[in-house]
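Problem: given the chain below (774 residues), write out its structure.
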Amino acid sequence: MATLLGSEFSSSGRKRRNCNSNIVTKLTSSKITGKGFSRGTQLPGGLLQERDKPAKWHGIPDLLQKLHESSHPNSDLSHAHGYLKSLSSQLSVEAMSFVTEDRTKAQESTFPNTYTFDLFGGVDLLVEILMRPTLTMQKKKPKMNDELVKDCLSVLYNCCICTEGVTKSLAARDDFVLFLFTLMTNKKTFLQTATLIEDILGVKKEMIQLEGIPNLSGLVQSFDQQQLANFCRILSVTISEPDVGNDDKHTLLAKNAQQKRNASPSRAEVNQVTLLNIPGFIERLCKLATRKVSEATGANFLQELEDWYTWLDNALVLDALMQMATEEAEQSSTESSDESSLATSPLRHRLPQSMKTVHEIMYKVEVLYVLCVLLMGRQRNQVHKMLAEFRLIPGLNNLFDKLIWRKYTASNHVVHGQNENCDCSPEISFKIQFLRLLQSFSDHHENKYLLLNNQELNELSAISMKANIPEVEALVNTDRSLVCDGKKGLLTRLLTVMKREPPDSSFRFWQARAVESFLRGATSYADQMFLLKRGLLEHILLCIIDSGCTSRDVLQSYFDLLGELMKFNIDAFKRFNKYVNTPEKFQAFLTQINSSLVDSNMLVRCIVLSLDRFESQTEDVKVMEVLSECCLLSYVARVENRLSFLFRLINIINVQTLTQENVSCLNTSLVILMLARRKAKLPFYLNALREKEYTEKYPGCLLNNFHNLLRFWQRHYLNKDKDSTCLENSSCIPFSYWKETVSVLLGSDRTSRCAIVSYIDEPFMDLDRDLLED
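Solution.
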């Protein structure tokens, strides 16, 4: 083959001018088809040198050929390392430009040296060099020079970020991916290895199985705290369910179908179990999440931190500097790898204080993310028990004022969405991950009371005693040795900063979600009063009515929180009426509710349920007084207003568009009808729906849509214990009554006044019968 090419290049001048493209074309073709040359080093050296300058290859093919010849088994790799360094110096310039110039796509024209390196087989050659010790039959594996390994890994990473397709080709080699994890045992090559693995796993089609990594438990236990924090960046890819990136896939219809197809645990779930089985893993993560950092002072601290982050486009340069500090500390006097060695390093002292802080913050972001994912997994109770035992919450409470929400934090943050993958600064990412962790920790779990201190727990007990109601069991069972220390618990600190946030701050969304999760589940009067005493209701109403907040996400989170805060609580409705004390304020509140029922329907459900309970307490003077005075309760008490809510709730959803976010609209409409059924008014409401259809001139559409929604409801909820428990706890309506009401509404007897079919005229029956068919 080489002879054939040689004769072609010795022919006419026209062909000689085209020989560069011929070589490139043949090499490219061989990569795609697997036929022909396996790498450019198989070409004659003289030919490569002849064509180098016209083709602007900058000697890269020639250097690769020399690297190949000097890296055979049992050869002296010192010469090979020299050639690799020459190659690395050319490629690193392009990699640095990729990082500093914020390029979004790797192109041949932008990074010609890296492209040439890959084209002539450089990537495959480096993989072969790295893995060569694993291929020997000798009992004692030959050890490669650490610096050579580091340079190989760095060049491979440069190729990944500068040349399209390299990362995917490496990800397709399972043997190489698993081999990379074995390199992490060497501290000197750990950083380069971790960086490359993180990049590869980010594009890998199939999630890697952690149990396939040789001696994973021993590997993780060998890491020092800094290495473990870095390793969390890798773990985050292996324990999170992949984002399908398509809204259609997020519909409940699609999710249910996928669950039927994939009944066994996903790879992410299996990986979570693998991690939890590693001795001491969760304890070390808790220590990482809660360890203290030297504090910076000065009015320009935040600006300095942001300036550093602008330069440090990712963690690579920062980690490299910190690694230099570690190595200098080791060379000076000690071989210790713990935090004290970093603290005594002269180089570390020369690093700006803000860089040390942002370094710790970036690590904590990854650690909190891993803990958050584990908290939301199938092993939630096991994780909860460990996080409580290792005092994660008290530790975070001690960091709150000094690191998590420092007084230096500016109040004019750019609004960021609630996507955990949001491309924002470490400061913002850290706060969002912290709030997501609190939300996951508190949500429907008795350990939520660990967010308080002993004094605050006593306050809850006193509230229950004054109201002459029993303390909730979870509060009684709380281990007080594991609660927060200090003058304030974590929940109280969160409320304090929540009130200071600007109207459209994205933190408000996450703050409200975290506080709401504390209230979710079976309604606790004491929990509500604890928050009401701290002015939470007035703050929420200020945000909804008076602050000019326009963010739908923030408003939705505040509506949901307000619903949990007011549910069944007559004191909350009295406070509401005191704040909303003019027709203008009440109208502004209604406008916000009606502007998007998807966002506000949980609050509507709370008001309807509360009104129903208050109306049964006619012997209570206080209740009757509030019922007669509260503008909100009076508004919902009017049947025409409840019907208006019902019409719109049914009309804004259908089976194809149901998601985890808007399925609450279906459940709220069911609550309205269940309460009507209790009072024997279900036929009145169904007839009103029928009249609405004819008034709007679309007979059958509304009721057929509702019929389909209820059929889906049966499929969805009758197979999911968790969802049914949530419905029962949040509404105080037994789930058996939910099921019974749905069955009655779906009855096939057209003579039944409580069956939907009896209100649909025959010509318009089952307009969408096939929508649920498999």
